[in-house]
Amino acid sequence: MGLLSKIFSVLNFSIKGLRYHSKSFIHKTAVLDNSFGGEISIGKNTEILNGVLILTYGGNINIGDNCSINPYSVLYGHGGLAIGNNVLIAAHCVIIPANHNFSEIEEPINKQGLTCKGIIIEDDVWLGTGCKILDGVTIGKGSIIGAGSIVTKSIPGNSVFVGNPAKFLKHR
Ligand SMILES: CC(C)(COP(=O)(O)OP(=O)(O)OC[C@H]1O[C@@H](n2cnc3c(N)ncnc32)[C@H](O)[C@@H]1OP(=O)(O)O)[C@@H](O)C(=O)NCCC(=O)NCCS
Q1: Catalytic residues, which ones?
Q2: Which of 162, 171, 172 to mutate to test the pocket of ligand 1 (most atoms within 8 A of CB)?
Q3: Which is the most buried residue in 51, 53, 67, 77, by most CB within 10 A?
Q4: Angle ∠(59,34,38) on CA atoms, nearest 5
Q5: In a mutational test of the pocket of ligand 1, which residue from 69, 94, 169 has the highest number of ligand atoms less than 8 Å from its CB?
Q6: What value does the mean pLDDT of the chain take?
Q7: pTM for the whole structure
Q8: Residue with more model confidence, 48 or 7
Q9: Are residues 53 and 125 in the same domain?
Q10: Average pLDDT, stretch 79-98?
Q11: How far is the CA of 161 from the centre of ligand 1 (A)?
Q12: Radius of gyration for the chain, computed over Cα atoms and rounded to the nearest angstrom
């Protein structure tokens, strides 16, 4: 084993598809679940606070360094969720990279499968409390999403978006 891999193995833990840095904090009431497939990785100095749910549902969830995922937020993985570094996710946000298909009227929606594109949240993003981020969206580096917003389309960097659906408020 080379020196770098030795250092890596000291600083990181890996258990059945869950990898987190030893300098991250995961509150005892948070749930990290990849039992339906997919992997979870959590970077250095990232905190996962009270009651947060991180549920892969077959996709991978990667969270970078120095992030804060605040109480009772729910992060799903279905089509993939990539969160960069220095990202703040306030309490009660939901990030859901999946949609039910519903084109067939005669068939129950729950039998029609899912479309999953994935969600990317770039570095230095702040999601205010109670945001909902829908599938296929990228939130650009340095952007802010106001409390209670629903993001249905990609957001450019260094901008502030608010509302349902989230609309441009201003540049930073
Ligand atoms: C988005 C935000 C950062 C903007 O703050 P700001 O730059 O000081 O903006 P202002 O308060 O001057 O508001 C500007 C306009 O946007 C509107 N607005 C602000 N936040 C909004 C929101 N979340 N949803 C809808 N509209 C909002 C204001 O009503 C105001 O509208 P007006 O011009 O018609 O009066 C702030 O309002 C916000 O939502 N913060 C999140 C707080 C939070 O969740 N904290 C958790 C701590 S981690």
Answers
A1: 100
A2: 162
A3: 77
A4: 30
A5: 169
A6: 93
A7: 0.93
A8: 48
A9: no
A10: 98
A11: 9
A12: 17
Question: What total of structural domains would you count in the chain?
Answer: 2
Q: Which residues does ligand 1 sit against, CB inside 6 Å?
A: 88, 90, 128-129, 144, 146-149, 160, 162-163, 169
The distance from CA 163 to its chain's CA centroid, rounded to whole angstroms, is 20
Per-residue pLDDT tens for 28-77?
999 999 999 999 999 999 999 999 999 999 999 999 999 999 999 999 99
What b/e sequence results for 139-155 when a residue is b if at least 16 CB atoms lie within 10 Å of its CB, and e otherwise?
bbbbbbbbeebebeeeb
Of all atoms in ligand 1, which is nearest to the CA of residue 126? 48
Range of the domain at 37: 1-86
Nearest CA to ligand 1 atom 38: 146
Of 86, 108, 130, the domain-final residue: 86
Q: How far apart are CA 43 and CA 57, in angstroms?
A: 20
pLDDT tens per residue across span 93-146: 999 999 999 999 999 999 999 999 999 999 999 999 999 999 999 999 999 999
Closest residue by CA, ligand 1 atom 48: 90
Shared-domain flag, residues 145 and 67: no
The answer to whether residue 97 sits within a structural domain is no
